[in-house]
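General statements about sequence and structure are easier to judge against a single worked case. Part of our work consisted of pairing the sequence of a single chain with a tokenised description of its backbone. The amino acid sequence and the backbone structure tokens for this protein are reproduced below.

***
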Amino acid sequence: MRLALFALLLTAGPALAETPLTAEEFDALTLGRTMTWAEFGTVYGVEQYLPDRRVRWTVLGDECRSGHWYPEGDNICFLYEDNPVPYCWVITAQGAGFQARGSFDPANALPVEIEETSEPVACFGPEVGV
């Protein structure tokens, strides 16, 4: 089912590719997967998508943070345990993954590229090496 929806989104043409994913589409395409987030061709973070819209996020080389995502209008918003301010993105299907434009970004900002990875989330913390 996920692959069929993903294939439909990829072959539907540019108009659909620019249409923000709904919460249901985003959930169907990410649940149980791990995705990299990259800017300017460089991966800066990894997020694991868990049941009930829960996530585990890490900036590469940093501690993991638990959180959850929720829809808000055309945005998919992420709220993490250590920060009361949500990060909201308009997410569209693009190529083999997604593009995300932050609601906080200027209109001419380049999108963030989101792609699936087979690598696990690597969580670092103060207890590592102790």
The helical segments are 2-11, 14-17, 23-30.
